[in-house]
Amino acid sequence: MSLTSPTDRPPTATAPTGDVGGPVGAGVRPAGPTRRRQGPLWLMTPGGLLLLVVVVVPFVLALWMSVTDLDQYTLRQWAGAPFLGLGNYVEAVTTGPLLHSVWLSVAFSVLTTVLTLPLGLAAAFAAHDRFRGRALVRSIFLIPYVLPTFVVGTVWRIALGPDGAVNTVLGSVGIAGGNWLIGDRTFWTLVLVDTWAAWPFVYLLCLAGLQSIGREVHEAVAVDGATWWQKTVHIVLPSLRGPLLLAVIIATLHHLNNFTLPFVLFGSPAPDQVNVLPLAIYSASFQTFRFGLAAAMSVASLVLVLIPLLFYLRAVRLDTGLEKGAQA
Amino acid sequence: MTAGMQATDRRRSGVDATAILPPGLRRAVIAVLVLLVLAPCAYILVASLMPDIEVASGAVVPSSVTLENWVAIWTTVPLAQGLGVSLLVCGVVAVLSALLAVATAYVLVRFTFVGRITFLRALVGLQSVPGTLLLLPLFVVYASAPTYLGITVVGTTWGLMITYLTFALPFATWVMVTYLRGMPVELEEAGLLDGLSRIGVLRRIVLPLSAPGLIVAAIFSFLLGWNDVLFASVLTQPRTRTAAVVLQAFGASQEGGALPLYGQVMSSAVVCAAPVVVLYLIFQRYLVGGLTGGLK
Amino acid sequence: MSTRRFLAVAGALTVAVSLAACGGGSSGGGGGDHAGQTLQVYLSKQSQYPDEQQQWMQRIKDEFRKKTGADVEFETYTSASEEQQKIQTSVVSGQGPDIYEIGTTFTPTAYSSGAFLKLGDEQWNAVGGRDRFVPSTLAMSGPDEADQIGVPFSSIPFVLVYNTQMFAAAGIDGPPSTWDELVADAKKLTQGDTYGLAMDYKDPFSPWKYIWMFAQQYGNPLVQGTTARIDDPTVARAYDAYFGFLTKDKIVNPDAVNWASADATANFASGKSAMFTMTSAGVIPTLAKSPVASSYAFAPMPTVPPGESALPAGGVPATTIVSGQNLVVASYSTQQDLALQYVDLVTSEAEQQHFSEVFGVLPVNAAAADAVASGKEQYAPVLEAGKQAKPTPFTGAWSEIQLGLTNITVQALAGLSSGSVPPDQVQRQLTELQQTAQTAVDKAAAAR
Known about the structure:
- The structure holds three protein chains of three kinds.
- Helices cover 61% and strands 0% of the residues of chain A.
- Chain A is mainly alpha-helical.
- Chain A has two domains: 41-85, no CATH class; 94-316, MetI-like fold (Orthogonal Bundle).
- In chain A, helix 1 (45-66) crosses helix 13 (291-316) and helix 2 crosses helix 13.
- The longest helix of chain A is centred in the middle third of the chain and has 31 residues, at 98-128.
- Chain A is globular, with a radius of gyration of 24 Å.
- The relative contact order of chain A is 0.15.
- Residues 1-33 and 322-328 of chain A have low confidence and may be disordered.
- Chain B folds into two domains: 20-69, no CATH class; 73-292, MetI-like fold (Orthogonal Bundle), CATH 1.10.3720.10.
- Chain B has 14 helices and no strands.
- The longest helix of chain B is centred in the N-terminal third of the chain and has 32 residues, at 79-110.
- Chain B starts with a helix and ends with a helix.
- Residues 1-14 of chain B have low confidence and may be disordered.
- Chain C has a five-stranded mixed β-sheet with strand order 2-1-3-11-4. In chain C, strands 6-9-5-10 form a four-stranded mixed β-sheet.
- Chain C is globular, with a radius of gyration of 24 Å.
- The chains are: A mainly alpha, B mainly alpha, C alpha/beta.
- The interface between A and B is large, with 135 and 123 residues.
- Chain C: It comes from Pseudonocardia xinjiangensis.
- Chain C: This is Extracellular solute-binding protein.
- Chain C: Residues 1-20 form the signal peptide.
């Protein structure tokens, strides 16, 4: 990486200059004229060094492992595990559960994200308004998100058991609950529990985004006599584009990599309906000791996630702070 | 939409122009969501006061209330020690990651250099690297530290700290990048004109001004460490077990043999969740403000 | 950007890191004198007996210090995943505990890693000789007598527990000796919400043991030499009988699709099931506190497989796997002599007897086993089952096969709960597993 390289390059041509503070949800303020070439780049070294040692080096090792036949027989002399080339990748795609798991993971992540959006938005709208007890409500909304995942998983697993609290409650209103933790319904169990735990993240980002709508905008809208619905659709939602995009990306990635929740809820081997990628990788790695294969599965899935992600990032320029669409 | 309703809306929004939802709808939304959140939480609390057999049989209203579970957990599992380790590790991680993040973000936002965009993209990309992929190789790296550097990493609290610190950095930096972008540069320039060095500007001007962003970064970093089971379970020894691992192990140990100690599982879940919930309640105000900066 | 500053920061960081490192613990080196040495032992948590285990650890620490002058540091694990992660990370890094307590079925995998001390005559003598142990418990120490790594530590044979009162009320003399007899008895005992047999279909460990047991009784050891025999009709037949208890014979509570071993135990303990198979003496403390405290007895499980009136030709009267814990010494350990002294201590007659009394498992020490058998009548059938225990295939491929067999049950739970498991679903999975298993067996053979 050239992070600490003293060589400098002119700013990219696309960088807009000057102030672009629109009335609503003003675009991010580009550093333009103040972005210097000579800077204390060494400030980045501690962070960069840590990332190098704790993430980059292990990641490179993982890449190496993914092209070797690393298993229980070779683990002790892992550096000398036989080189397989793309053998693990071929095996993962052709015989393993990889494709099924990728599909499941994507479906699960997208569905959960989609479900958390309206909840988070509604909560943000409601908690944005002034009313007595607002601070308390704002805090309560955060609780599911701050509960540790394994706590959420354990509690729901107990409550969703065949004789658990959920079925007791359903039974009291005349609904036969049935099995939540086996069979076809497991996928929806996972989606619902994760939705319960994750919507406050969307709420938090949206609530923060709402703060940036100036009072004068609200007043102008009030004078125009727009209904709340018109205001929401034409003014509020467009100004939340940035936070919503960020929430969608981060939340989807977190759902994709969520190992703890499905593991605590369903264990391993998990029912096929919830054998999401992290579980499949865990099983290959720590239950059948095919470390090379597991690494290949991880890398393959990472690439699958990164390709659309990077295209997306390029398109919305969310990463560079040069977002164009924000000035509604 | 009738003219009459529009008039009502206008009148109401005259009371609070910034309001988005009509009061009736707002109350309904709040009622539904509060119920959605609190019902399961109330169940956890109630279940922690029930005998195990009642939790297992799905009772929602306890026939008898007992504090036994709350007393017993402290001896059943080394929960107090786990909480101590977790608080120490996550506290240190929270502070350090916020500071490192602001320094990194400052450079990323205010200066230009080769690889800057790549680095920014990598911050998002890094969050998609699955933990299961890094677990074994990371352990290999740590385990070779005694051989090459003569220091022991595995099993120490600081080994855990640098791990969480690093995992927390991408998101923390991201938060700070977005926050700093929203901060006016005029003050910094004034500081430079007054003869402050770049570091002086960072310390005297940027740091105090970005306090809300720092708090957000710190809190998210804290939560990351508090939540982790995967890395803590292989990077710790009995004396350095975190609360998460203790609780996870306790939950798992209830699988075989006798009737599970559901009541104690519930009460220890409350104990493990309490510090984070309290933390959030204290900083709740800053949390929203801190995310505001860049999220325009 | 100044290079000097960069170096200064890097330097400061290094110093900080190394200073912090000094805070970490370290264990002392070897030498003739064991005082000051610390032996690290990794063992399973006795979650039913937390206090007793603490006391036992203290007792062993004291005894060991008296014997060698060295300290013991215990670390416990509570789940198989925790255990295996720990072992793998230790193996890959060549550092970690000196001694591991591992399950018998995990021993083949541990053996195949080559990371544990092989026990020659010298090592066996250091722990009291092979003769010290109940012969059947040695079957999972290694692939053959010349290549062993595991010293037996505890024996946990699987048996049948039955409700004597319910049996008497139904006019049944004693425990069944064939599985068909068991089903017939269970049908008699099933009425209303009381069922003849408790099952733990959702247990992570039990299901594959039934399949292994029935297959053995039908004459299929699952792995024969270097051939996997998963797609053999006997395996499909085993699943058919195992699921049939619920779907065809209707002797099992339909809720059992959601039961792990603990739930099935609880159901038996509440008097709602007349029998519970594939259980162990470990349930005694639970049952002792239950309504059935004075009306239960153990027996070995039947040895004649479902649908047969006598053991088929080539069939093996297997009921329980050689089950329990082995102790293995890490080959990276710098204090292997000390480790063997620890093994010697905890497998001695006195310690084995004490351990058995406290935790309800059976001794592997032959003399201690005799003492326990003569002291407690209740244990006699369990000890008998233990003596007849048959080993699971000792191949590095076993973990994969075991996981695959468990997985078939996991995927069948939905069908089970709706009343029938599609036979073609099981057959398809068996065909897939056969391939995976054969590949794994070939790999194991190549690695030896």
